Amino acid sequence: MTAFWIIIIVAFFCLLQIAYYHRRGLRRVSYTRSFSRGRVFEGEEAELVEVLVNDKLIPVPWVRVESRISANLRFAAQENLNVEMDQFHKSVFFLGSYSRITRTHKIECRKRGYYDCGSVHMVAGDLLGISSCRRDVRCDAALYVYPRVLKPEDLPENALKWQGDIAVRRWIAPDPILVNGIREYRTGDNMRDIHWGATARTGQMQVKTRDYTVSPRVMLIFNSQISDNLFGGMAPEDADFLERGISTCAALAAWCVDAGIDVGFTTNGENRLNESGDVFIEPRTGESQLEAILEMLALLKIKMRVGIQRVLDTCLASGMTGMDVLLVSAYWSDTLGKRAEQLRAAGNSVTYIPLKGGSRV
Q: Which residues contact 42 (CB under 8 A, 6 or more apart)?
């Protein structure tokens, strides 16, 4: 009889805990996840931080956290982390009474893009694994992976030539008011530029150097078409080829900001967060402008939203003038040539930057 009652009591408690964890296993259990860095460059590492809290006396035997994360975010081998098909990720936890668990997963960011990893499915169960309860959780866990910024030696020849031309043109007309430094006197310097205070301190004749009045304004235009007559889908090798164009835009934008040049960006590609709207960033300078352009490049889909000629027509219709237009494109055509001449006639310069590896006509 004793054994019988022991079995009855054990069975009762088993059923009780099954019923409890089925209905209230996730009660007062919270989960959050976030990235240690919200913005990284392609090829860099980020950390995904998971925090699970049990704010009640009764422990939870197991909690499984499931989510889909792009295969472009490669997880390092981690204990208690199961990765299936490079996309489906599962973390398993045991939660004691009033406990808090923090786990950090290292991730290699293998490809440019925007990754929203905030959708999470939680499952908690009883000691025997018979019963479970579920909950969907939404976290603020988004990651911008900026494109790789090409080194000067990896840039197309036209991009390097354009940078040289701009560097020379900026110093054509010194401004008589703006002073940016002091140097030693040279034969032919204007006596009005002598800096008498610096001359007295150094014992040698010093003159003021002037800032430039010619301040170029640059509009980067990225063409997401692989050819002038693009219909239907795009081959993977073509998409990879166009990725170099995005990296070229990132390098040119970084160079402009470093040089103090106003730079903007537009494209006929799609913004992942706003597929129906135009992509246009007004020319400005500064680190915040560079970040805005890099963020847009991370969001950019290599997918034609409108024809590139439509983007150029919009620039013409806006009355754009005095702008250095850099068209980063996989090809050049008569259609593009005609729009380029119209932009030049309106007082702009237009430079075609072919993707390194050859232009596709």
A: 109, 110, 111, 112, 145, 146, 147, 148
CA 9 to chain CA centroid, Å, is 59
Residue 110: burial class (beta carbons within 10 Å; 0-12, 13-18, 19+): middle
287 and 161 fall within a common domain:
yes
pLDDT digits (tens, 9 = 90+) for 113-160: 999 999 999 998 777 777 778 899 999 999 999 999 998 888 988 898
Contacts of 353 (CB under 8 A, 6+ apart): 156, 158, 159, 162, 248, 252, 326, 327, 328, 329
**CATH code of 325's domain:** 3.40.50
Contact, 119 vs 136, CB < 8 A? yes
Residue-level pLDDT at 188: 63
Q: Clarify whether residues 255 and 311 are in a common domain.
A: yes
Residues 237 and 281 in one domain: yes
> What is the pTM (predicted TM-score) of this model?
0.79
Contact between 258 and 287 under an 8 Å Cβ cutoff? The reply is no
pLDDT reported for residue 256? 93
Structural domain of 203: 174-212
